[in-house]
C-alpha cells in the first residue's frame, strides 16, 4: 500500500474519492464540486488537484476515461478526460470513512468528514462528533485561561478579537451538542442509506441535509 498522504493532501484525497463515488467527472466539474465540499476558504487549484488525481491513478484507485468530443475525428480536438473510481478506489473510500481517530476531529479534516456523514456508519459519526466536541472543550479551557491572564494587558481591539474567538468556539460546541443529541436519538442502524437521505445523485449527504458546503464556519466558527 502507498504511504499515507499528509493531512492537507489527505483531505483532498478523501473529498475526491467521495465525490467520484456515484458518477465519473472531468477535472473542471470536480474542481467546482470540491469548492462546495471543502469550502470557499480552501480554494483548490488545478496545480493541487491534478497531482492528487495522478497519484490516485498510480495507486489504482481511479482511472481516466476519454470522453469523445463532438466531431473529434474531423477537428482533431481531444475529448475531455473523465475520472472514474475503480473497485479498489471505492473500497479505499469506505475504509477512510470508517476511521474515527483524533485526526478526524481536527479543523483540517473535520469539515470534509462531516460532508460525507451520509455515507458513514452511525457509531463512527458519533465518535467523530464526540471527539470534535472534546477537542473544542480543551480549546475553550485554554482560551479562557489565556484571556483571564492577559485581559488587563490587552488593548480593546485585541480583547474583542480574543472574545470573538472564544464565542465562536462556544457556538460550535453548542452546535455539536445538538448534533450528538440528534445522533443518539436515531435508531441504532449500521448505516443510513443515501437514498433515504434524499440527497441528489453524486452529492454527499450529512445527518440533516446535503453534505456539500456543510462546514463548522457555517455555524459561527
What does it look like?
The chain has 221 residues and is mainly alpha-helical. It has 2 domains: 7-68 and 78-104, Arc Repressor Mutant, subunit A, CATH 1.10.10; 121-189. The protein is built from 8 helices and 3 strands, in the order αβααβαβαααα. Helix 7 (122-150) runs antiparallel to helix 8. The two termini are 36 Å apart.
Itemize the secondary structure elements and their pairings:
Layout: H1 7-19, E1 25-26, H2 27-38, H3 46-58, E2 62-67, H4 72-75, E3 80-85, H5 87-97, H6 107-115, H7 122-150, H8 156-185
Antiparallel strand pairs: 1-3, 2-3
Helix pairs in contact: 1-2, 1-3, 1-6, 7-8
End-to-end Cα distance, whole Å, is 36 Å
Radius of gyration: 20 Å
Coarse shape: elongated
Helical stretch count? 8
Tally of individual domains: 2
Taking strands numbered 1, 2, ... along the chain, how are they ordered across the largest sheet?
A: 1-3-2
List keywords for this structure.
221 residues; mainly alpha; Arc Repressor Mutant, subunit A; 2 domains; elongated
Summarize the structure.
This protein has helices at 7-19, 27-38, 46-58, 72-75, 87-97, 107-115, 122-150, 156-185, and strands spanning 25-26, 62-67, 80-85.
